[in-house]
Amino acid sequence: MLAQRVTQAAAEIKGLIGESVRASTEGSALASVAGTTIERLSEAVTRVDTTFHNLSADTNEHADGLLAMRDTLFALRETTRENLQLATETFAIADVLAAQARDLDGVLAQFRLSGMSESASVPASPSIARSPAFAATAAASAPNPPAAQGAVEFF
């Protein structure tokens, strides 16, 4: 009976050892799978981290670009404002010059040059009188009559 009991105990121990080896093998396989899964998870976290760093860098680059664009638009607005002011001043100066030209035309219409007839001394149109071709034609075709009474002579 003791021999039977020893044999039975040895069989139980053998079964327990076999079960322990099997559980250990399964545990080792599960640990290997868990290690592989953790490694893949770590790689995925690294990729996500890299993506976020790239996104952050891109966002900073876009923000810098937007700031530069804003500064350029402010400078363009200031330049446009200055150009508008200059255009307004130029328009006002042009109006003053046009008025002065009209006044000068009126004053010059009162004078006749020596040797010019009365019809040649006052041109029909100020724009024609300003042209060099008219001045040359008028000077060449004007007769040399005596100076008109009351006219101021300059030349």
UniProtKB/TrEMBL annotation:
Molecular function (Gene Ontology), one example: transmembrane signaling receptor activity
Domain of life from the UniProt record: Bacteria
Gene Ontology, cellular component aspect: plasma membrane
The keyword Nuclease belongs to this UniProt entry's keyword annotation: no
Classification via InterPro entries: MCP_chemotaxis
Keywords: Chemotaxis
Biological processes annotated in GO: chemotaxis
Protein family according to the UniProt entry: Belongs to the methyl-accepting chemotaxis (MCP) protein family.
Name of this chain's protein: Methyl-accepting chemotaxis protein
